[in-house]
Amino acid sequence: MSDIAGQAGVRQGRPRRGRQAEAQRNDRRVLDAAREVFAEYGADAPVSAVAERAGVGMGSLYRRYGSKADLLRHLCMLAMEQAIEAAEAGLAAEDAWSGLAGYVRECVGFGSGALGTLAGTIESTPRMWETSRRGRRLLDELVTRARQQGGLRADVTALDIAWLIELFGRQGPNWPGTGDSSVRDRLLAIALAGLRADAAGAGPLPAPPPSQARYEQRWQARR
Question: Per residue, what are the HEC states of 152-210?
């Protein structure tokens, strides 16, 4: 992993000055652009489309990240760190259901799942695996708290929530995205209502919960 990618674990909320602040702003612009581009066009989208949408030059991207693979790994790290911050904020909420629902809305709002299309296309580093598992441990805590307080139905798992967030992160040509957020917000409200323990007429879920092995297997780079 490059030095740049290795710095992705630094929290985004920490104040920076000078060049560090500028680099942080550029990182965020590129991350936001990449989420939009990969959500719309998938993993085969060219880096030039990300650069154009972010308003930065290709030369600047490659000077900073070195290669497309380094850029994509760095973006994945940034996205996971952002989701971790959202999980920590959710755990700080007094009401467990509000904390979990707030986490889901926050992650959907900034497109946390949009980079899921990259699964299997890049080599994941040990740091990426470590960060991913930390994020899922925090999500597991959110889910456990919400179940214990009676807000979340008992058969919903942390990986169900993770897949749901990723599903909302994928736009496609006709999916309501940032330009039509009211439809997306309405659909998300319906999905969240279905997760409640007191959901009217809720029957058993139709299949076993997803496994961690299956969830992680997607990120094994395909040779």
Answer: ECCCCCHHHHHHHHHHHHCCCCCCCCHHHHHHHHHHHHHHHHHHECCCCCCCCCCCCCC
Residue 142: closest CA among 200, 91, 216, 66? 91
**Which tens digit of pLDDT belongs to each residue from 26-77?**
788 888 888 888 877 877 888 899 889 888 888 888 888 778 888 888 888 8
Going from N- to C-terminal start, the domains of the chain cover 3-217
pTM (2 d.p.):
0.77
Q: Is 151 helix (H, G, I), strand (E, B) or coil?
A: coil
Q: Which residue has the tokens 């030369």?
A: 59
Helices then strands, each counted (H, E), the chain: 10, 0
Extract the tokens encoding 23: 């680099």
d(CA 25, CA 181): 24
> How far apart are the C-alpha atoms of 207 and 183, rounded to whole Å?
28
Nearest CA among 69, 53, 51 for reference residue 61: 51
d(C-alpha 68, C-alpha 81), whole Å = 20
| Rounded Cα distance, 80 and 211, in Å | 19
Instruction: Please tell me the distance from the alpha carbon of residue 126 to that of residue 48, in angstroms, as a whole number.
Output: 28
Q: Which fold has domain 3-217?
A: Tetracycline Repressor; domain 2 (1.10.357)
CA distances from 164 to 26, 70, 122 (A): 29, 27, 23
Tens of pLDDT along 184-222? Answer: 788 889 899 989 988 755 677 777 787 777 777 777 766
